[in-house]
Amino acid sequence: MSRLKLISIIVLTALVSCALTSAFWFAAFNRGQIAVSGAAVPHPATAAAAPGDGGAPHVAAGGPLVLGPTGLAIPVAGVKTEQLSDTFTQARSGGRVHDAIDIMAPHGTPVVSAAPGTVEKLFFSNGGGGITVYVRAPDQLYTFYYAHLQSYAPGLHEGQVVKQGDPIGLVGSTGNANPAGPHLHFAIHRMAPSEKWYQGQAINPYPLLAGKKPGS
Ligand SMILES: [Zn+2]
Questions:
Q1: Residue whose C-alpha is closest to residue 173's, from 205, 151, 144, 189
Q2: How far is the CA of 209 from the centre of ligand 1 (A)?
Q3: Neighbours of ion ligand 1 (CB under 5 A)
Q4: Are 66 and 104 contained in the same domain?
């Protein structure tokens, strides 16, 4: 009887340690997988463009977010870094300068938030940006501007807090955009904390998203 007891204790011990060992390796393997995939994501270098939670990027409707070297996400789903071009200093009608970049994409492509913030203004400008969104960064020092949208993301409203990668709307050609060349007009403005949504100083999104010098 006591021999049987001893054997069952040995068997039980073996089973438990076996289970613990495989649990350990399973967990270690999983951690390794996460570390490997996380290493492929460039880490944010500036607070201005930090992603929402510091963890794995959110997955937008059109695929994984593409993050620039500053941690900003390319705000149109499926667009790669090499598809961006710098039109920040291009002339526009009335002697204006573009002060933004145009990210070309078919009508209806999802537009996602380049960075976290709060929707400060939903604005319609028939002769300008058409259907537009202004998102203010949490530190109030930057505004992200999305224009020529076909429509807003369902339920989008002023005061809404958005994370990086959250839906903003769909690419379109509202306002003064050419319907033959639908695109997202994307601008970043450096703001004084007291400035309103329509103020601020434009800074070039291109190097922040593409990781290249302006114009390159
Ligand atoms: Zn534009």
A1: 151
A2: 16
A3: 100, 102, 185
A4: yes
What is the CA(149)–ligand 1 centre distance, in A?
A: 12
* Domains contained in the chain, number: 2
Distance 128 CA to ligand 1 centre (A): 10
Assigned domain for 215 exists: no
The Å distance, Cα 94 to ligand 1 centre, comes to 14
Let me know whether 2 and 80 are in one domain: no
Cα angle at 55 between 25 and 50, to 5 degrees? 155
* pLDDT tens digit at each of 216 positions of the chain: 456 565 555 544 454 444 444 443 333 333 333 232 323 333 333 333 333 333 444 444 557 888 887 899 999 999 999 999 999 999 998 889 999 999 999 999 999 999 999 999 999 999 999 999 999 999 999 999 999 999 999 999 999 999 999 999 999 999 999 999 999 999 999 999 999 999 999 999 999 999 999 998
Is residue 168 within 8 Å of 152, Cβ to Cβ? yes
Distance 114 CA to ligand 1 centre (A): 16
| Rounded-to-integer distance, Cα 56 and Cα 41, Å | 8
Alpha-carbon span 71 to 57, nearest angstrom: 10
Residues 55, 146: one domain?
yes
Could you tell me the distance, in angstroms and rounded to a whole number, from the CA of residue 56 to the centre of ligand 1?
30
Q: What is the residue range of 21's domain?
A: 1-40
